[in-house]
Specification:
The complex is a heterodimer of chains A (207) and B (265).
Chain A: H1 3-13, H2 16-36, H3 45-77, H4 79-88, H5 93-127, H6 136-163, H7 170-174, H8 176-185
Chain B: E1 2-9, E2 19-26, E3 29-33, H1 40-47, E4 55-60, E5 63-64, E6 75-77, H2 90-100, H3 105-114, H4 119-122, H5 132-145, E7 150-154, H6 162-174, E8 178-183, E9 196-201, E10 204-210, H7 211-214, E11 218-220, E12 229-233, E13 236-241, E14 248-249, H8 259-264
Parallel strand pairs in B: 3-8, 3-9, 6-7, 7-8
Antiparallel strand pairs in B: 1-2, 1-4, 4-5, 9-10, 11-13, 11-14, 12-13
Helix pairs in contact in B: 3-5
Classes of the chains: A mainly alpha (207), B alpha/beta (265).
Chain lengths: 207, 265
């Protein structure tokens, strides 16, 4: 790995936007799910388990898509530089993509871990028992696929702006993952039928 | 060596080309002189492959620029836009680019300090937060510190005060690789007497000439058969002649944008 990987990872992990919108803001909703919405569910263990898994899946989706709002513009900001750097430094195009993917995944997985710990902790404080995944490996794979989806979506949208030469749309496009996440979040209230299978976050509930 | 063969660059389909058949062979140290908007920066962008080539070729050490990937030590440039890989502070950015190119960050820091910029200041600022002059100094220092065989300097003296321009001249002259600098300023010719000069007007490259020959050269608004160089400006023939008091001394122009006033008048 080159210095690019280490510096990009550090910049993403310490980005104030990501820290606020993906963690602090979502923490507020963790407490809302536990202490406000949680009053309206059956206070039995099975119902709490399903409720906790639903909360984690949905809040993680919002949290990660919030982070992608920052990851996508960072690629757009450096698009001209990427062209130069991949030609005239030791960072080849494939190596750049690999290192960018790795640093983004580390950030998204770190956010997922923080959300897991906080949901588990807050829901334990509220309901009095720890809800652990029944299939830890399955949960990890599910989270990994979710982070890959978010990264691929951010990358695709960013490159679309570059290829279509539409920098004026950059701001709107960067928010598309978040808009899609809120649409998927609406599945708590609306039946989307089979369209629900498009979101890998929904599988978190079953593991 | 950088070789440009019949190079055309058009930004938008059916628009007039910005570069119109540029041919040039660049080795050693060369200046490209031309007014603003003549295509100098576009030419450099094409060499860096930041702009698509419409037709023609650019070869660096015999290899087409389109085929060059992950080739450290071949080319560096002082364009600000190539130093935006990460939005980190300038100090870290210098470390990053010199690491990616196996360059020498200390060399860049020494040069930056030589221009009176404190390194502590660079740890607190992003590149976009620097003044135009500071940005130019940092990007030029980075281009030099990347230790490439070919270095392109786009308007290296712009936005600098006279004292700093003098220091910049010293740093450019000290570099041992192939240097290609473009500028619209003619005052600096006396400082680069051993360099080669080209002129660029309206997307066409003229030359080469020795800079020494230009020190007493005059601009004459007619087609002179014994001219050092004949240029086409605003549809009129302009001759660069040896100084005999017939025309306007090139170095007295200070800025080549003034040639349009002469050609227009």
């Amino acid at each position: 790995m080159t210095k690019y990987f280490w510096m990009n990872t550090k910049l993403l992990l310490t980005n104030p936007y990501i820290l606020f919108w993906s963690i602090l803001f979502i923490e507020f909703w963790v407490f809302m799910w536990a202490y406000v919405f949680g009053n309206y569910i059956l206070q039995v263990e099975e119902a709490v388990r399903i409720y906790t898994a639903t909360a984690y899946g949905n809040l993680l989706m919002l949290s990660l898509s919030g982070a992608s709002v920052k990851i996508a513009p960072s690629l757009l900001y450096s698009s001209k530089s990427i062209r130069y750097v991949t030609k005239y430094t030791k960072l080849s195009p494939s190596r750049f993509l690999l290192e960018n993917l790795a640093s983004s995944l580390i950030t998204l997985l770190a956010i997922s871990a923080v959300m897991f710990i906080s949901v588990t902790g807050v829901f334990f404080a509220r309901f009095g028992f720890v809800v652990m995944p029944v299939n830890a490996v399955g949960l990890f794979i599910s989270i990994l696929l979710s982070t890959l989806l978010i990264y691929a979506l951010a990358l695709f949208l960013n490159f679309s702006v570059v290829i279509l030469r539409a920098p004026k749309s950059a701001s709107f496009i960067s928010f598309l993952p978040l808009i899609l996440a809120f649409t998927a979040y609406a599945s708590l209230l609306i039946d989307f039928g089979n369209a629900a299978y498009f979101s890998p976050f929904n599988s978190i509930m079953s593991v | 060596m950088i070789l440009s063969q019949d190079l055309y660059v058009t930004y938008r389909w059916r628009q007039e080309p910005v570069l119109k058949g540029v041919n040039g062979n660049f080795k050693g140290k060369a200046l490209i002189l031309g007014p603003n908007g003549s295509g100098k920066t576009t030419f450099f962008r094409a060499i860096c492959a930041l702009t698509n080539i419409t037709s023609g070729k650019i070869l660096i050490d015999g290899r087409p620029v389109e085929d060059l990937y992950a080739t450290k030590g071949v080319l560096s440039v002082n364009f600000q836009e190539v130093y935006t890989l990460l939005g980190s502070n300038v100090f870290d950015l210098v470390k990053l680019y010199t690491d990616l190119s196996d360059g020498d960050s200390e060399l860049a820091f020494e040069m930056i300090k030589d221009f009176g910029i404190d390194l502590g200041f660079l740890k607190k600022r992003k590149l976009s937060e620097l003044s135009l002059g500071q940005t130019k100094i940092v990007c030029t220092a980075l281009a030099l510190a990347m230790k490439a065989r070919h270095v392109l300097f786009d308007e290296p003296f712009e936005d600098l005060d006279p004292a700093k321009k003098g220091r910049m001249v010293k740093h450019l002259n000290q570099y041992s690789g192939v240097v290609l600098a473009n500028t619209h300023e003619t005052w600096l010719l006396k400082n680069h007497q051993n360099w080669i000069a080209f002129f660029m007007f309206e997307g066409v490259l003229y030359g080469p000439l020795l800079v020494k020959e230009l020190l007493n050269a005059e601009i004459f608004m007619a087609d002179e058969p014994d001219a050092l160089l004949r240029l086409k400006v605003l549809g009129k023939m302009v001759s660069l002649v040896r100084g005999e008091g017939r025309g306007t001394l090139l170095t007295s122009l200070e800025n080549l944008d003034r040639i349009y006033e002469l050609a227009g008048g």
